[in-house]
Amino acid sequence: MLSARDIARRVANGEASAQSILTECERRIDERDADLQAFAARPTSLEAGSGPLAGVACGVKDIIDTADLPTGMGSPIYAENQPRADAPIVMRLKAAGATVAGKTQTTAFAFLDPAPTHNPHDPSASPGGSSAGSAAAVAAGLVPLALGTQTGGSVIRPAAYCGTAAIKPSFGLLPTVGVKPFSWSLDTLGLMAASADDLGFALAILTDRPELDAEALALRGLRVGLCEQRFAEAPEAACGEALARIAEMLREAGAEVLTLDEPDELGEAFRAHGPLQDWEACQALAWEYATHREDLPPKLGAYLDAARATTPAAYDAAREATRRGAESAARWLGQVDIVLTHATPGEAPETLASTGDSRFNRLWTLLGTPCLTVPLARGPRGLPVSFQIVTGLGEDAKAIAAGKAIERLILMAA
Amino acid sequence: MLSARDIARRVANGEASAQSILTECERRIDERDADLQAFAARPTSLEAGSGPLAGVACGVKDIIDTADLPTGMGSPIYAENQPRADAPIVMRLKAAGATVAGKTQTTAFAFLDPAPTHNPHDPSASPGGSSAGSAAAVAAGLVPLALGTQTGGSVIRPAAYCGTAAIKPSFGLLPTVGVKPFSWSLDTLGLMAASADDLGFALAILTDRPELDAEALALRGLRVGLCEQRFAEAPEAACGEALARIAEMLREAGAEVLTLDEPDELGEAFRAHGPLQDWEACQALAWEYATHREDLPPKLGAYLDAARATTPAAYDAAREATRRGAESAARWLGQVDIVLTHATPGEAPETLASTGDSRFNRLWTLLGTPCLTVPLARGPRGLPVSFQIVTGLGEDAKAIAAGKAIERLILMAA
């Protein structure tokens, strides 16, 4: 994979020009993307900007508005849709000197019907969803950075399936203006990159918060809470083993690893994700559903058919369970420095017909807490398996600092 | 003014067809709008829908996306901008049988540079802003219902200046998807109509929450808190007198009227509105500012020039002050049944060069609490002066029930 920080350093040192690095990215995309199908639309050429991300090519999920590339939402309903404005997050990329390498494939409206993208590790395996193209493009070494969005598990899941690092930052840290909404209480922008180190580097620049480019945490004495997410169905053995393995590595490095109890409020909040999303998605996609029902893909169409039955009372109850869950989670997360939990239920599905399962991601999206994953190992089918780090709302720097420490540990053990 | 509930009743009774009522609205708009300038774009003809709002023509502020009418944002930057989809709130109107009478004039991007609209009571006076066309169209009797948005005071202020009723419901009650963002933590959809009774009728239908069409509250024994908003500069005499007058009427009707202390946290939250909006507006309008600075109107351009200096730390401090203010306000509002406070600092400015002042609206927008105004009286210049009702977050039904009781009291006293 390409490193954003390394590119920035080489450009700053004069080792390479930003333009030559972009031209090399372009060549790789030309070479690989006919097979990989990570991109939905690309500019005619990549031109270098100026700033700390000069030379950094970035994939932009195709539900994010761009003024000079069409924004198709993964759906024929938005064929040739050309937004007037760039979304604020795209403007931040450009202001920092990054170059939009293209729009990356998304499932239709970021729901569950698969995008055409393949998993770079196995062309017959799912790259996950909904930010499929962004994860695959980073994992295949086509770009060092990509934007995704997560409403259930759409940043962390594809990143873990494809074997990249990713962060879903605290809710609201990155502005979702100009991003097609699915459920406005849940929709969160995130980043994919080669490493936690690169994520911290890019996120600090994009948010103008240098403290997010945090030093690695000391592992000795770090209080790490293991969370099985017992309110959700158990994972496959490979993911249970991955979590046990990283826990053991942390113990050996001097961390204090505890298995956490899970307050009832967390399970109640986990179950509230459904009705909350159902009610908001029916509002957010009201026009598409009422006027283009036949053009919606099967899973999304059937989902909205059912979700329409959600009542305002069920929505209010879900919001109340979310509020209680957030209060409980703040105390619960406060017991430890970081929480480690499953990122996915297993390796990527051995099919292009499913984007996998977001059950280990949904609670954290609902609570708005930072989630970060880094590549760990391969499962029995040879595909990536990993874990995720969770910290308290607003503790993005700590998630990054922990990710940097843990990825070094993984590297040293390899 | 036209009454939405009355129209619905006449259509339901067979006294008039929905189409004949719409044709009559269309005739009034044709007759008056060349002078009033309430509309930015109109359909070629108004066609009746079916449902509880059949025959109800509705003005839609021109920062709200419509699939069959251009959405100009009050700015040449969005000339001939044709969104693909209707915003969810527009879909709700249509699903209920209402007819979009046209896009109503807005200040550019809902900021302070005046729209071309005139005040129906005095063509040389401001209709207020930013939802100028919506307020003027309802006040002039062109339509019974209109959509506005409030980030500072852009629903309540123009309604009070033009002499209509209006509600800014609890933050998030109406979905802002498809509404051009200015400050996503503040932007709130609201309704203008002839009366609180009409507001309750329409809001209940648009939200699928019948309890919002609440019965009038009993005034005897009602605990009413008067709030001067002493953290803001004092109002003109006319508005001070209006608040004293409605308080006296309520006392005579048996209400218990108390003057409330104002906790420091409210003033701190009031002052947090500025940096919160500044930081978010710079993000939300990043593309317009970076690529079309010269096409921004003077107040907005200068505002963004200055707002760029806002730091993430100032934004975080503003969010923290908002959180403390919301906690304090929840307790403070709990002392009484409703709070009465100024809606505006005076009558509408006697100029088309200013949209007036939102200082008595901004705190409540920040806190997300329901605000409702009904017409009360005329000031020394013959223009409307009024007050607003504030209730706790989520207590929209109580705001409507109080508005209905108070508007009856005003009617009986007239």
Which tags fit this structure?
414 residues; alpha/beta; homodimer; 13 helices; Amidase signature (AS) enzymes; globular
Protein described:
The structure is a homodimer of 414-residue chains. Chain A has 414 residues and is of the alpha/beta class. Chain A has a single domain, classed as Amidase signature (AS) domain (Amidase signature (AS) enzymes, Alpha-Beta Complex). Helix content of chain A is 40%, strand content 13%. In chain A, the strands form 2 sheets. Chain A has an 11-stranded mixed sheet with strand order 1-3-2-4-6-5-10-13-9-7-8, with helices on both faces. Chain A has a two-stranded antiparallel ribbon with strand order 11-12. The model of chain A has no long low-confidence stretch (mean pLDDT 98).
Low-confidence runs of chain A = none
Largest interface: A-B, 31 and 31 residues
The assigned structural class of chain A equals: alpha/beta
CATH superfamily of chain A: Amidase signature (AS) domain
Number of domains of chain A: 1
Mean of residue pLDDT values of chain A: 98
- Note the gap between the termini of chain A: 17 Å
Q: What do we call the CATH topology of chain A?
A: Amidase signature (AS) enzymes
Instruction: Identify the CATH architecture of chain A.
Output: Alpha-Beta Complex
Shape assignment of chain A: globular
- How much of the sequence lies in strands of chain A comes to 5-15%
Biggest pleated-sheet summary of chain A: 11 strands, mixed
Spatial order of strands in the largest sheet of chain A = 1-3-2-4-6-5-10-13-9-7-8
Supply Rg of chain A.
20 Å
